[in-house]
Design a protein that fits this description.
With about 200 residues, the protein is of the alpha+beta class. The chain has a single domain (about 5-185), classed as Protein Transport Mog1p, Chain A, CATH 3.40.1000.10. Helix content is about 20%, strand content about 45%. It contains 4 helices and 10 strands, in the order αβββββααββββαβ. The strands form 2 sheets. Strands 3-4-5-9-8-7-6 form a 7-stranded antiparallel β-sheet, with helices on both faces. Strands 1-2-10 form a 3-stranded antiparallel β-sheet.
Length: about 200
């Protein structure tokens, strides 16, 4: 697998801003099998299980309603795939422009467009009472088919996006990445209907 190609795909996770099925996920019971560890971001107000300590990056983007959003991106590049989680706070003027569920509905297609790929599946979720979307996207880089597994979550005006890129299907340890996400010290609680 070409980690440079997955690095490009992981970077796209910060760009995106899915929806037939609704599900309530059960709390994740953390364990350290596979050598993974619980990693916390006090500023990001989340914790997640990762195979190594992530690198951090920040990018600032202009928003349609004016203003900017800085995305804080944490990435682990591993032989079995790349793992990325990002967060950013949308200004209230931008949040008022479009309902949360509409924003979440556009995430998967925006990511697929960014990597010239296609959305294979998507579904609506509620994560700890917050509206979310999961999607699977396929893209081809240098004749390699890459699968991007993504999760987008809104907690108030904070937008979280998780992603895992691999050339293989999801393994139990990869599912652990998504299931282990937990909001800590959240200041706002989003209604489950996403409005």
């Amino acid at each position: 697998m070409k980690t440079g190609l997955l690095g490009i795909a992981a970077a796209v996770l910060s760009i995106g801003l899915c929806s037939q099925v609704s599900a309530q996920l059960k709390p994740f019971e953390f364990d350290t099998s596979y050598g993974w560890n619980l990693w916390k971001s006090p500023d990001g107000r989340f914790q997640v299980s990762l195979p190594s300590t992530p690198t951090e990056d920040a990018r600032t983007n202009n928003l349609p309603a004016g203003g900017q959003m800085t995305s804080h991106i944490f990435t682990c590049i591993r032989p079995a795939g790349n793992y990325s989680i990002s967060y950013g706070d949308l200004p209230s003027k931008e949040m008022a422009r479009e309902p949360v569920n509409s924003r979440l509905d556009r995430v998967a297609q925006g990511m697929a467009n960014g990597v010239h790929g296609r959305v294979l599946s998507q579904k609506s979720l509620v994560i700890e009472g917050h509206p979310a979307r999961d999607a699977v996207i396929s893209a081809t880089f240098s004749s390699h088919t890459i699968y991007l597994y993504t999760r987008a979550i809104f907690v108030g005006n904070r937008f979280y996006q998780m992603g895992q890129g691999t050339e293989n299907s999801l393994e139990p340890r990869n599912q652990r990445f998504f299931q282990s996400f937990h909001v800590i010290a959240a200041r706002h609680r989003s209604p489950a209907n996403g409005r």
